[in-house]
Specification:
Layout (H helix, E strand, L loop, with lengths): L10 H20 L10 H105 L24 E3 L13 E3 L3 H13 L5 E4 L4 H15 L20 E5 L14 H9 L5 E3 L14 E4 L2 H10 L8 H5 L8
Helix pairs in contact: 1-2
The protein binds zinc ion.
The site of zinc ion (ZN) has 4 residues, from strand 4.
Length: 339
């Protein structure tokens, strides 16, 4: 690229300069052989000066050439470096693109993994749900197996309760809830809190409820029916259940009255206490077994049976009675009887 030294000087001047240079160089070369006296002193000085100039021109010319070469070399190197850098940059770009591709692949893989994980998690959750449902069913079955099935069976004339049946847990009712003058009375241990709550709830409304009779064993009912039959003959069947057919044998049924009425009389139906029971007994799980016009016994306004709050509520809401319901429908309430 570089074309060396370029001098745009008139050739005539160069020729004159060379001639002059040759002449003076001759003088300098001839100096040792010449008689110093014949030489003009100024010529010698001028010749030396010219030689120095020549040397200087050569030196600076050489320096300029060297610099130009170095510059050219540097320029080449720079170009090479730039090219190298461009190549490296291009390679770096390529590497980055490849890395980005790899990253995309990894991201895709990760998304697939996440999908798989989510699916697996959902599967596990479904499985856990199933286990929980099975556990719940097992729990219900266990609870049901421990609940006395007789407690929600229909007992009256056509339905018979085994003579050996005795409630699982019988507790004495506190004396304060018993009609004065009556014997100690017993009730099913799990239903007793509901009975006490009901009597206390009534007391808050100034209603004085008292228990006349609660749990009656098969033998007791047998003896009682015997007494009634002796006195009333066949007529006893209309108001007294035979042994094994009485709800009282369950331990969850109670005859209630107020002290003013003082006994199991139909006139109890005219009292405020009875009106209160019709309105509130269901809240405590009690229902009237033998309402007016029932197919089994005479109207027994005093005779209340514990069937659990849910079932009592249902009977109240539907305005139906326990014996109107289908046994299978009743059985659905058994599991919750003491809840
Ligand atoms: Zn009764």
């Amino acid at each position: 690229m570089h074309s060396g030294l370029k001098m745009h000087v008139d050739p005539q001047v160069i020729r004159a300069f060379y001639l002059y240079l040759i002449k003076n160089t001759e003088i300098v070369l001839k100096l040792p052989y010449m008689n110093i006296k014949h030489i003009d002193r100024s010529d010698i000085v001028l010749s030396l000066l010219l030689v120095c100039m020549l040397a200087a021109t050569g030196y600076f010319g050489y320096q300029t050439l060297t610099l130009k070469k170095e510059l050219a070399t540097f320029s080449d190197e720079t170009k090479r470096t730039v090219t190298d850098k461009d190549q490296k940059l291009a390679e770096a770009h390529k590497t980055i693109t490849q890395l980005e591709d790899t990253l995309d692949d990894i991201r895709d893989d990760l998304e697939d993994l996440e999908d798989d994980y989510r699916k697996e998690k959902n599967k596990n959750e479904d499985f856990e749900d199933q286990i929980r449902k099975i556990a719940g069913t097992v729990g219900d079955l266990d609870k049901l197996s421990k609940t006395d099935k007789e407690l929600l069976q229909k007992y009256s004339k056509v339905y018979f309760l085994n003579e050996n049946y005795i409630p699982s847990d019988i507790e004495e009712i506190d004396e304060e809830y018993i009609l004065p003058g009556k014997n100690a009375q017993f009730f099913h241990g799990d239903a007793l809190p509901f009975l006490e709550d009901m009597i206390e709830d009534a007391a808050r409304d100034d209603i004085d409820l008292k228990v006349i009779s609660a749990y009656r064993s098969f033998d007791y009912q047998n003896a009682l029916k015997g007494q009634f039959t002796q006195v009333y003959g066949e007529g006893a069947n209309t108001f007294s259940a035979d042994q094994g057919y009485s709800e009282h044998q369950l331990g969850t049924t109670v005859d209630l009255t107020d002290p003013a009425t003082g006994g199991t009389y139909t006139s109890f139906a005219d009292t405020e206490a009875y009106a209160w029971l019709l309105k509130n007994a269901h809240k405590h799980g009690f229902t009237l077994s033998y309402p007016e016009g029932n197919n089994f016994y005479i109207f027994e306004p005093w005779h209340w049976r514990f069937v659990g709050e849910d079932l009592a509520e249902h009977l109240y809401d539907e305005n139906i009675h326990f014996y109107d319901m289908d046994q299978r429908e009743i059985d659905e309430y058994l599991i919750k009887i003491f809840d």
